[in-house]
Predict the 3D structure of the following.
Amino acid sequence: MPMIEIKNIGKWYGDFNVLADCTTQVEKGEVIVVCGPSGSGKSTLIKCVNGLEPFQSGEILVNGISVGATGTNLSKLRAHVGMVFQHFELFPHMSITENLTIGQIKVLGRSKDEAIEKGLKLLDRVGLKAQAHKFPGQLSGGQQQRVAIARALAMDPICMLFDEPTSALDPEMINEVLDVMVQLAFEGMTMMCVTHEMGFARKVADRVIFMDQGRIVEDASKDDFFGTPRSERAQQFLAKILQH
Amino acid sequence: MLNLDFAFLSPEVVSGYIAKGLIFSLQLTLVAMLGGIVLGTILALMRLSSKPWLVTPAAAYVNTMRSIPLVMVILWFFLLIPLITGKALGAEMSAIITFTLFEAAYYSEIMRAGIQSIPKGQVAAGYALGMTYGQTMKEVVLPQAFRNMLPVLLTQTIILFQDTSLVYAIGAYDLLKGFEIAGKNFNRPVETYLVAAAIYFIICFSLSMLVKKLQQRIAIIR
């Protein structure tokens, strides 16, 4: 059974077709990179996976559980699907430690001590142990994003969703975040990443999905995608972003 | 020429007439503020929900309260409750309930603006961690909204404190009433109203100074 199964997803904003008949799957331990021009629906697609965005047709199964079904306990499902956002979305009124423990305590019911221990261990892993008592506003963008990854990992996720995790960062901070993601990929985490970091895709992706105008235009293994993309649109896109 | 004489304002007069009224005015302000903020927050959440059966009654309540003069609400509530329940509430209790219900409408508009000022991504982040709607509001959105809006909430409270003097309409014993009675008993109405104004000024002005201080201190580091 695939970890994430996306079947014929359709979504409309009024007359505008944001997602059209999108079908793909992510196997356990796979790393999938989703790319495409802005407005192509890639962020919307990944937000559908944990139910942050509703969709009108089709079905998404995460670990066998249907995201869109009426009986599904979405909160329970999301608790084990880590998500990292473009703008980090750390809670600015909480210290880094509180950011790392709030979900564990309130959602998973862990004790405060247990949550702090786990949180600090993960903070150490992303190289920010010294920042535990600071507030998000006192950290750089790259540091905040690493904390956000640690916050998601603290919930012991079965898979991780990344929604353009580096596109709001200064260039010099991108690598520190990608390093954490690469390490995570090598450890076998199931990952679905919306990103334009083709270096990251080359290094760790199993498959690359290319989207345009709400459709999955290309869904190919990494080597096929970078070697000989079949669609003209993907070739154009690659030519543009790999030019420099 | 004005011939003012403040000699009658002895400690006995203050403790006998004024203290009782001051305590009630402060009590009324405090209860109406706390109750109003709690009720106002609930109204704000209702208005921001996606369910029409929550939005409509909350919007109707807020718009009605904000369109009627406070003194009329005070009077109507005081006169209507005995007619409906058959039992008088007493002017003080009636005032406390009326002010709480009335101020809730104003606090709800402040909280609504506060909640809307929190980026949508914050809600998404709460949900993504597996929090329910209630948890996301309680842990993520409301603490930030409340902090952002604290100066405005306090400013509204200053207005509330001034408005408590309107309970004269139903004869409740507040700060103004204390001065009024003292003025009548000692035949010094001009002096007592002057002192009353000074006291209102001191309390409200110190509160607005506090608001100014707070504004500088609480800006969340983002």
In short: The first helix of chain A runs from residue 42 to 49. Chain A has nine helices and ten strands. Chain A touches chain B at residues 47, 50, 52, 74-83, 85, 87, 89-93, 102-103, 106-108, 135-138, 151-152, 155 (CB under 8 Å).
